[in-house]
């Protein structure tokens, strides 16, 4: 079971515990108890009937009837009212609630440093900030961070940049590969990151990686047809690899984005003409 999953399970358990604490704390401390209310009502109903019958049979006067009726009604209201009996929570509820209120945040902090992101004990700030603060060990710091947070795509990109600065281009390509894997719909579909991986791959002089670089540049152009860097570099790589027709395709697209009155426009025309001639002669270095 991964540390991330353990952390979220514990977080859910703590939330449940917090709900229990709130229930105990907010629970009403008084209860309503009804005692003999039904019996009292029956007794007073009988007395009312008797009083009315005596008045009807002229056994009592109207004045006596009114006086006894008022007294009977007052007693009926008082004795048939629902009494409220106050109850106190058990003596252990308050200290247990205080203990749980202290335990929950302390446990949350402990779990965070234990499972959520243990590298925070030694790693402070974002990958970029950490790299800037400790230039002598930025690659090591990023590796430490990524051991605990392997899906941190920005950290993989920062690590690729650091490898590139150090001239470790194969490692830079590997870091970019991880970033593409973690973010297949983000980084992997961004033209500039495709170009960046292609540059690292070309610096390795590895034939296999060179083929990957050409593929990345083609994909970058599909993602962003107006990406000048991808078009220019794609044409150069294809030309150097003897793929003159492909070089022409790259450069013709670049030509459409280049102002006609610029020196680059005339140089592109010359490069395209040369590549076409070589393609017709099937000339290769």
From TrEMBL:
Residue ranges constituting the Cytochrome c-type biogenesis protein H TPR domain according to the UniProt record: 142-265
Keyword set includes Nucleotidyltransferase: no
Stretches that traverse the bilayer: 6-26, 96-115
Ranges in a coiled coil: none
SUPFAM superfamilies given in the database record: TPR-like
NCBIfam families: cytochro_ccmI
PANTHER family hit by this protein: CYTOCHROME C-TYPE BIOGENESIS PROTEIN CCMH (PTHR47870), CYTOCHROME C-TYPE BIOGENESIS PROTEIN CYCH (PTHR47870:SF4)
Protein name: C-type cytochrome biogenesis protein CcmI
Organism: Parasutterella excrementihominis
Gene giving rise to this polypeptide: ccmI
């Amino acid at each position: 079971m991964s540390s991330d999953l353990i952390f979220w399970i514990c977080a859910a358990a703590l939330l449940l515990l917090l709900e229990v604490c709130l229930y105990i704390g907010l629970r009403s401390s008084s209860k309503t108890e009804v005692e003999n209310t039904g019996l009292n009502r029956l007794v007073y109903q009988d007395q009312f009937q008797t009083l009315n019958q005596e008045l009807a049979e002229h056994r009592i006067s109207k004045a006596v009837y009114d006086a006894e009726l008022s007294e009977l009604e007052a007693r009926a209201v008082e004795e048939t009212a629902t009494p409220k009996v106050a109850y106190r929570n058990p003596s252990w509820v308050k200290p247990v609630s205080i203990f749980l209120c202290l335990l929950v945040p302390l446990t949350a902090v402990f779990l965070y440093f234990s499972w959520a992101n243990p590298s925070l004990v030694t790693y402070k700030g974002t990958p970029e900030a950490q790299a800037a603060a400790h230039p002598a060990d930025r690659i090591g710091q990023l590796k430490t961070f990524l051991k605990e947070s392997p899906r941190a795509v920005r950290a993989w990109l920062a690590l690729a940049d650091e490898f590139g600065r150090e001239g470790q281009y194969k490692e830079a390509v590997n870091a970019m590969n991880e970033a593409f894997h973690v973010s297949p719909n983000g980084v992997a579909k961004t033209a500039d990151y495709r170009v960046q991986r292609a540059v690292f791959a070309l610096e390795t002089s590895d034939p296999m990686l060179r083929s990957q670089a050409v593929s990345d540049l083609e994909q970058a152009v599909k993602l962003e047809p107006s990406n000048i860097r991808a078009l220019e570099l794609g044409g150069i790589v294809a030309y150097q690899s003897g793929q003159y027709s492909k070089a022409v395709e790259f450069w013709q697209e670049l030509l459409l984005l280049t102002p006609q009155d610029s020196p680059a426009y005339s140089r592109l025309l010359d490069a395209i003409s040369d590549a076409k001639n070589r393609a017709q002669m099937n000339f290769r270095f």
